Amino acid sequence: MLDISYIKANRDFLIEVAKNKKVVVDIDYLMSVFEERQDLLQRIESLRTDKNSIAEQMKQMATLTEAEKQNLIQKGKVIKDKLQTLEEEFAKIDESYQEEMYKVPNIYSKDTPIGLSEDENVVLRQVGERPEFTFNPLEHWQLGKNLDLIDTEKSAEVSGARFAYLKGDLVLLQFALIQWVMSTLNNSNAIQQIMHQAGLGNISNKSYTAVIPPVLMKPGVMKRMGRLDPIDDRYQTTEDGLMLVGSAEHTLGPLHMDEILDYRDLPLRYVGYSTAFRREAGTYGKDMKGILRLHQFDKIEIEVFSDKESGFAEQDLILAIQEYLMQQLELPYQVVLKCTADMGTPDIRAYDIETWLPGQSQYRETHTSDYMGNFQARRLQTRYKDAEGKKHFVHMNDATVFAIGRILIAIMENYQQADGSIVIPKVLRSYLAKDIIAKN
User: Fold this and answer.
1) Of 59, 136, 277, 437, whose CB neighbour count within 10 A is largest?
2) Distance between CA atoms of 422 and 359, rounded to whole angstroms?
3) Each residue of 29-82: pLDDT tens digit?
4) Per-residue model confidence (pLDDT) at position 287
5) Is residue 113 included in any domain, yes or no?
6) What number is the average pLDDT over the span 161-181?
7) What is the CATH number of the domain that holds 424?
């Protein structure tokens, strides 16, 4: 959420921002609601002052005549009734105000491309050699079926479309990825090495604290995160209304909700693992085979809380970590700077990493990185005190370390062999105590 004074001072710019982000919001209507809200608030405060004044006078009841007493009592009753009416009006207008404020998108960085579709995203670089095969490479779902690693037929009977059973060595490979990532990001020396390789200076080498966050959350909190919509892509429980998270960052972001942090503790860096749930609304008929697009999937996510000076640098480090891990896996990928229409409403700057999938003969998104500035923190009331005791909203970053299913796909397709087996990336072999996944 942006500050209302900033919105007032930058009306025309924010109308342009909303247009470029393809967000529907009426800034002028918001300002009229704000003015009405302010008028009501002033009237309420005036009545409260009068109410307090009468309360003080009532303390001197013993010195008043009966007529004066009755006059004060009558005035108090009139004020009470007016106050109740205005407070009810204010509750309604305040709710409308909050709704309109939530519609206003965050601004975007100067280097964000202006575009009206993902086709206008900018590929910054391609890294790694695409594998060359002496045979026609299979897609992951074919490899998974042949090696008895993926079963979507039985899961369709049990749960429906877009679910899967992962089995055998593919499960072990998933847990190897998790263990490797957690041990890497929890190591300040490894962070320092990544920073050095990426040429990043003047930033902390603090490690990332491992977290397993809840996968159910209150809809009000998800709304404060700016991640409730599109609501038709979320799962909600029927009895108590809790929402299933669509990513680990949904419950990592509110980890310091309504708190005031000490600047000396910043940055606070977390790496969380959880199962995620999405309806995949609007994707009917797309990616129906295999595990690329499921209703239930697992992710490793980063969430960072920093001071206002370090937000962009924290995102630079996150991107460096994503690339380092991909290079360690020796997977070919490209880094994409997302345009205005393809980035999220809360985002100031957003990157994707897309990994080459030989079976599909195309790059597919496997990572995102979103820098929100203080947009989410303002909604969540997550602040910090600086050295002078002044309070500021923290700046927040979230990012995908691995959408695990998609990285498993990338490993399977890039490391497949002519005999149908799959070579395990060197960096993961010690975790599985084997070099290859083959048919039993």
Assistant:
1) 437
2) 13
3) 999 999 999 999 999 999 999 988 888 887 777 777 888 888 888 888 999 999
4) 81
5) no
6) 97
7) 3.30.930.10
Q: Judging by beta carbons within 10 Å of its beta carbon (0-12, 13-18, 19+), is residue 308 exposed, middle or buried? A: middle
What is the token pair recorded at 105? 């998108």
Write the pLDDT tens digit of every residue in 343-361: 989 999 999 999 999 999 9
Tokens standing for residue 340: 């205005």
Cα three-residue angle 68-72-78, rounded to 5 degrees:
145
Rounded Cα gap, residues 135 and 323, in angstroms? 29
Query: For the residues of 135-164, what is the DSSP string, one character each?
Result: S-PPPHHHHHHHTT-EEHHHHHHHT-TT--
Q: Give strand ranges (E) for 62-206.
A: 122-127, 150-151, 165-166
Q: Which domain holds residue 70?
A: 4-103
Distance CA 231, CA 358 (A): 34
In angstroms, what is the C-alpha Rg of the chain?
Answer: 27
- Asked whether the predicted pLDDT for residue 284 surpasses 80, the reply is no
pTM to 2 decimals?
0.92
Rounded-to-integer distance, Cα 344 and Cα 226, Å:
9
Dihedral sign (CA 382, 387, 389, 392): negative
89 and 130, same domain (yes or no): no
Cα–Cα distances in angstroms (integers) from residue 248 to residues 58, 210, 427, in the given order: 56, 12, 25
The answer to whether 287 touches 137, Cβ cutoff 8 Å, is no
CA distance 408 to 140: 9
C-beta neighbour count of 293 within 10 angstroms: 17
Kindly state the tokens that stand for 51. 């109410």
pLDDT at position 316 over 90: yes
Cα maximum dimension of the chain = 106
Tell me the three state secondary structure of residue 328: helix
d(CA 389, CA 212): 32
CB 303 within 8 A of CB 255: yes
Contact present, 244 and 297 (Cβ < 8 Å): no
- pLDDT, averaged across the chain: 94
Q: How many structural domains are present in the chain?
A: 2
Provide the sign of the torsion angle of the four alpha carbons 338, 343, 349, 351, taken in this order: negative
**Residue 373: closest CA among 322, 305, 302:** 305
Tell me how far apart the alpha carbons of residues 409 and 246 are, in angstroms, rounded to a whole number: 20
pLDDT tens-digit profile of 390-440?
A: 999 999 999 999 999 999 999 999 999 999 999 999 999 999 999 999 987
